Amino acid sequence: MKRLLAASLTVFVIISGCSTNNVKIDDSLKTYFDSNQVDGCFAMYDNGRNEFTVYNLARYRDSAFTPASTFKIVNSMIALKTGKLLNEKEVIKWDGVTRSNPQWNQDLSLEMAFKYSSASHYQQVARRIGQDTMQLWLDSIKYGNRKISKIDSFWLDNSLKITPDEQLGLVKQLYFQQFKMDKRPQDIVRRMMLQKDNANYKLSYKTGWGFKENGKSLGWIVGWIEENKHPYFFVLNLEGERSMDMINVRLRILDGILRKLGFMEGVK
């Protein structure tokens, strides 16, 4: 079992290193992007069967993008590991600046800042960590291109970039608590990612929304779905016009793809 797990981890490093028998290119998923007038890619890894499904392989494997709020996964782990935050209940004070999202205009615990995806609260967290420590952990985790511009904006300003392939590997490592740090920070973040929990499935993810250098909207959803205690890891990456309804479009695409692949009915 340990050998099988170790072998399966390589699927995220270089997909071309996988057996073609384990990789299914599913162009039928294109309809979910086209119907929402966006470009993008989707990939899923079935951990138990060591099987991989992908739409738009070139984008998935070769293109890197700002992680936007998906970086809160790593930002949280580092803060908890280094003691800058003690636990998910610790309160991060509101800085008093009124922003367009009313949920951000208050003191928030770490878990609520994660839930509401508050940029300003996590900017405070990054400043607490500091650039040297942050760089140390980005290098240790091997996160994307590991580039830090300014400590409180590098995951938003297109300096730090990561491929969808690397994002998928990251959530798999998180699920199995495989980062080179204590398991506690990983476990806390893994629990904070849980979005839906019912009799048929558990769905855990983190969203992200930023803007490319050309001004287009860039969105992410990264995480996993569990049915019958069996995890399937996924990454959704998309881009569209700046004025698009990213919040609803990305969730609509994810829901459609998961249902097409047979999820959410408890029969997997």
What oligomeric arrangement do these chains adopt? single chain
Straight-line N-to-C gap = 21 Å
Please mark out the parts with pLDDT under 50 across 5 or more consecutive residues, or reply none.
Answer: 1-19
Strand order of the largest sheet: 1-3-2-9-8-7-6
Number of domains: 2
Describe the structure in your own words.
By secondary structure, the protein is of the alpha+beta class. The chain folds into 2 domains: 1-65 and 163-268, DD-peptidase/beta-lactamase superfamily (Beta-lactamase, 3-Layer(aba) Sandwich), CATH 3.40.710; 67-155, Beta-lactamase (3-Layer(aba) Sandwich). 35% of the residues lie in helices and 21% in strands. The protein has 10 helices and 9 strands. It has a 7-stranded mixed beta sheet with strand order 1-3-2-9-8-7-6, with helices on both faces. A hairpin with a 4-residue loop joins strand 2 and strand 3.
Produce a short descriptive summary.
This protein is α+β, with helices and mostly antiparallel strands. The chain contains 10 helices and 9 strands. The chain folds into 2 domains: 1-65 and 163-268, Beta-lactamase; 67-155, DD-peptidase/beta-lactamase superfamily (Beta-lactamase), CATH 3.40.710.
